[in-house]
C-alpha cells in the first residue's frame, strides 16, 4: 500500500525534532456544491531541526515515531526551497 505524501506549511517548530504541519485541502460541500477549505495539523519528524515556522514542506507517512508522530519530513530540494 503506498504511503501518503502531503504538502503543507509549518505552523510550529517548538518541539525538539518535531514540526507541526498544517495541510489544507479543498472539498465540495455535499448539499450546496460549493468548494470549501478543510485543514488538519500533523506532527512530523524533523531529525535535523531544519525547518522553521512558515516553511512549505512535504511529509510522508511512516511507522510511528512517538504517540502523535506518524509522518516524517521529506528532505528534497523542492521542500527546502532551494
From TrEMBL:
Coiled coil: none annotated. Part of the 30S ribosomal subunit. The keyword RNA-binding applies. This is Small ribosomal subunit protein uS17. One of the primary rRNA binding proteins, it binds specifically to the 5'-end of 16S ribosomal RNA. Belongs to the universal ribosomal protein uS17 family. GO terms for biological process: translation. HAMAP family: Ribosomal_uS17_B. The gene is rpsQ. One of its GO terms (cellular component) is cytosolic small ribosomal subunit. Pfam families: Ribosomal_S17. The lineage of its organism: Bacteria, Pseudomonadati, Pseudomonadota, Alphaproteobacteria, Rhodospirillales. Keywords: Ribonucleoprotein, Ribosomal protein, RNA-binding, rRNA-binding. It comes from Thalassobaculum litoreum DSM 18839.
Amino acid at each position: 500500500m503506498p504511503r501518503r505524501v502531503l504538502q503543507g506549511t509549518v505552523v510550529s517548530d517548538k518541539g525538539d525534532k518535531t514540526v507541526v504541519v498544517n495541510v489544507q485541502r479543498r472539498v465540495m460541500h455535499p448539499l450546496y456544491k460549493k468548494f470549501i477549505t478543510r485543514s488538519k495539523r500533523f506532527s512530523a519528524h524533523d531529525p535535523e531541526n531544519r525547518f522553521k515556522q512558515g516553511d512549505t514542506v512535504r511529509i510522508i507517512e511512516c511507522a510511528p515515531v512517538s504517540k502523535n508522530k506518524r509522518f516524517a519530513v521529506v528532505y528534497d530540494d523542492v521542500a527546502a526551497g532551494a
